[in-house]
Amino acid sequence: LKGFIILLFLSCLATRFNFCLSNLSNIPFTLKTLPFKGNLSFDEISLNKVSKDFGNRYQYYPMAVLNPKSVSDISTTIKHIWQMGHSSYLTVAARGHGHSLQGQSQTHGGIVINMESLMLPEMQIHVGNSSYVDVSGGELWINILHETLRYGLAPRSWTDYLHLTVGGTLSNAGVSGQAFKHGPQISNVQQLEIVTGTGDVLNCSKEQNEELFHSVLGGLGQFGIITRARILLEPAPTMVKWIRVLYSDFAAFTRDQERLISEENAFDYIEGFVIINRTGLLNNWRSSFNPQDPVQASHFNSDGKTLFCLELAKYFNFEQIDIVNQEVERHLSQLNYIPSTLFLTEVTYVDFLDRVHVSEVKLRSKGLWDVPHPWLNLFIPQSKIHSFAENVFGNILTQTSNGPVLIYPVNKSKWDNRSSVVTPNEDIFYLVAFLTSAVPSSNGTDGLEHILSQNKRILEYCERENLGVKQYLPHYNTQEEWRVHFGNKWEAFKQRKFDYDPFTILAPGQRIFQKTI
Ligand code: FAD
Questions:
Q1: ipTM higher than 0.90?
Q2: Which secondary-structure segment (H or E) carries 313?
Q3: What is the Cα–Cα distance from 493 to 512, expressed in whole angstroms?
Q4: Is 485 a catalytic residue?
Q5: How far does residue 478's CA lie from ligand 1's centre (Å)?
Q6: Beta bridge partner(s), residue 241
Q7: 289-316 pLDDT, tens per residue?
Q8: Do the beta carbons of residue 113 and residue 93 sit within 8 Å?
Q9: What is the distance between the alpha carbons of residues 351 and 332, in angstroms, rounded to a whole number?
Q10: Cα 332 to the center of its chain, rounded Å
Q11: Residue of 37, 93, 31, 99 whose CA lies nearest to 62
Q12: Which of 122, 157, 328, 470 is the most exposed place for a label (fewest CB within 10 A)?
């Protein structure tokens, strides 16, 4: 009997193994028979392209790349995998512009959906009391800017860099200097069209399929693929006054930042960054910022110091210039920056919003864009920002020559707590972003290992001191870490996964849930 049971067990195993193997070898064939408007690629070049991301550290090869031309291409693919049920090992990763940092838009052996190829009817702009634009989830923000400007309108909330897709930033939050006023990008969306993990195509908003709507925003791609989004618009200015002032006193810097974010009409954009131990600072801290070296500032000796730069912008149209000048002067006169460090320039609205692209072009020309990017982004409660700064700036982090370190506060009241994103539990919290680039194969302080160990020390410090910090663009290796990250939102997050993607097909690169086979 024992022998029989063992035989039975082995034969079951073999059947299951064969079943999986035959499924595996059949999959490309069955996929190819699906009625796509777009196409599937299996070639080396296509697979290679989507197995990389901006972080330049993780590489997973998919089995195929789907270039959808319609929403039904996406829904057909997912439905096909869903119908194979537990027998399929396949996962699906929507890829926006692939600007993730740790393989979040990749899948090992699954299907990558190249969202940029999704063709919807052209962007639809609605002009009215509450203007909006309907766009494809694979649309780049830079294209939305150019298109909406033709109507004198533009989205209200941005990221610092616009060559990212709508689906990619809405899956995280989309935070920049406008967030204090309008909230992150996920607070500026009215409606979404989603293909869920069962292949269903659903519209959702605060009024319709509300749970799905909130799940997907900041949902790290876990609950569905965003195929269309309705983005709120505001009248666009033509010009921007772009201002930078320096502080050596952190308390004065944050006091001014916090006062400014409490006044909605003072400025349209508020950010800041840290400068540590940069010799010859005045020759290089304002890349893409003109005038390059105002006479006043050349008297300021910055060598070896830790400084904090407040960055502000005020939008205007030419006819308002006198009033805007007076207002800006009045607001600046109330700030406590180092008087000789006022840098002011005027640029077009497009040049301001697309400013990081200027740096991209420069870095690309020097071969410094496609290097490893061990970025670390944190949300820090207001009550802990001073201890954080004291322990990290100039201590764990001894220089900022490997890339900018951003620091600015936002108002929690502008974030919807029903979304999937997690933020600290205080009215104001800071985004601190260590946007470092590593020099390939360097063993020095600009090398990957050194920067990673610095990030680790920062995270360990936050944990040891129980600062209540949350990672933005989070990355963890175990589900236990994810559970801690989501805190009291974890059970709801798990339930939402079960409801909208029960076979855990979607966004495996986030490594939150294992595919159930
Ligand atoms: P991808 O990297 O392609 O995808 C990211 C995740 O979203 C993946 O899990 C993917 O599966 C999922 N996804 C992609 N498309 C969809 C979709 N249509 N539906 C559902 N899920 C989808 N972030 C900020 O908030 N503020 C900034 O100022 C900012 N600046 C940045 C500057 C640079 C230079 C870079 C490289 C990144 C910056 N980011 C910023 C981070 C950026 O917002 C995220 O990395 C974002 O995910 C990138 O968008 P993407 O289109 O490249 O997405």
A1: yes
A2: strand 306-316
A3: 10
A4: no
A5: 22
A6: 314, 346
A7: 555 444 445 555 666 679 999 999 999 9
A8: yes
A9: 23
A10: 31
A11: 93
A12: 122
